[in-house]
Amino acid sequence: MPGFRFTNPEEEELVQGVKVLVTGATGLLGRAVCKEFQTNGWNVIGTGYRRAQPRFLRCDMTDEDAVRRLLHEHKPDVIVHCAAERRPDVMERHTEAAVHLNVHATGMLAKEAAACGALFIYISTDYVFDGRSPPYGEDDCPNPVNVYGRSKLEGERESLRHCPGAVILRVPVLFGEVESVTESAVTALWLKVEEAAEDHCGALDHLLQRFPTDTRDVAAVCRKLAERARQDPSIRGIFHFSGKEQMTKYEMAVAMAQAFNLPSNHLVPLTEQPAAAAARPINSQLNCSRLELLNLSANRLPLKVEGHQERSSGSRIGLRFWPALGFCLQRF
């Protein structure tokens, strides 16, 4: 069937119960979302494109006919839309194709979700804000400073236009169990940490404030929202979720060095606006009180790591980010 297919149809099993369809299931967040729902007893259908085989359905999310057939055949109760172009610099260079995925495909999927009665959860970003007046609540006026932020904001609007009961979840920069260190902007900093062994100087941004967030926590929030929204129709509209620890890229890299007992004196903090293809907000901190008041937030308890308290004492590197990094990077 054009647009999507099972890789091993002979192994397909008839499933019963509540179904969730996760787009972008091969990606950093999508993998965590699939795992979270599956662990909690949901029937999970994951889609991907270039990396779909052999675990997931192959589906081009920009192919309207394929998306419609996918939903009509599998009839999901919930759709978590993780698929997106999420690299701001790439979007500045390849705007048309990226907007087609982030905006038009999102609107099409939301429309089909409404038609089949599925709850639609759309993953958005803190980059819908300009970073000048943090923290930002759900009702604050967006003002994105780059193409990526504008595309995700338009994706939000398309979601709510075609599916008024949709849930929008805005999140900041993510990290998690990566397949390669460059899969996340956070774990990609590991390459700078490793430069110490080659006697290189690693210059890193120490101006833009970020709130690195564990994909496992985001996945748990998605599941909680899905479960509550299926029971309570007032759970709709925009929600914010974010890690609590505020750090620059320089501070993240120092945390990585600490986590693996590596030197960090070769890392150099830069306090001027970094040169990049896409502008970034200086501080797009999200106010997450709506989720918290509804008891729908998720914050993984920190692992007990020997020596952690001593190494992080006197810094802004908290008790959660440090051990989570170790978990994500231990295979590398």
Automatic annotation (TrEMBL):
It comes from Oryzias javanicus (Javanese ricefish). One of its GO terms (molecular function) is methionine adenosyltransferase regulator activity. It comes from the Eukaryota. InterPro entries: dTDP_dehydrorham_reduct, NAD(P)-bd_dom_sf, RmlD-like-bd. The lineage of its organism: Eukaryota, Metazoa, Chordata, Craniata, Vertebrata. Keywords: One-carbon metabolism. Pathway: Amino-acid biosynthesis; S-adenosyl-L-methionine biosynthesis; S-adenosyl-L-methionine from L-methionine: step 1/1. Belongs to the dTDP-4-dehydrorhamnose reductase family. MAT2B subfamily. Residues 19-294 form the RmlD-like substrate binding domain. Regulatory subunit of S-adenosylmethionine synthetase 2, an enzyme that catalyzes the formation of S-adenosylmethionine from methionine and ATP. Regulates MAT2A catalytic activity by changing its kinetic properties, increasing its affinity for L-methionine. Can bind NADP (in vitro). The keyword RNA-binding does not apply. GO terms for cellular component: methionine adenosyltransferase complex. One of its GO terms (biological process) is one-carbon metabolic process. Heterotrimer; composed of a catalytic MAT2A homodimer that binds one regulatory MAT2B chain. Heterohexamer; composed of a central, catalytic MAT2A homotetramer flanked on either side by a regulatory MAT2B chain. NADP binding increases the affinity for MAT2A. This is Methionine adenosyltransferase 2 subunit beta. Coiled coil: none annotated.
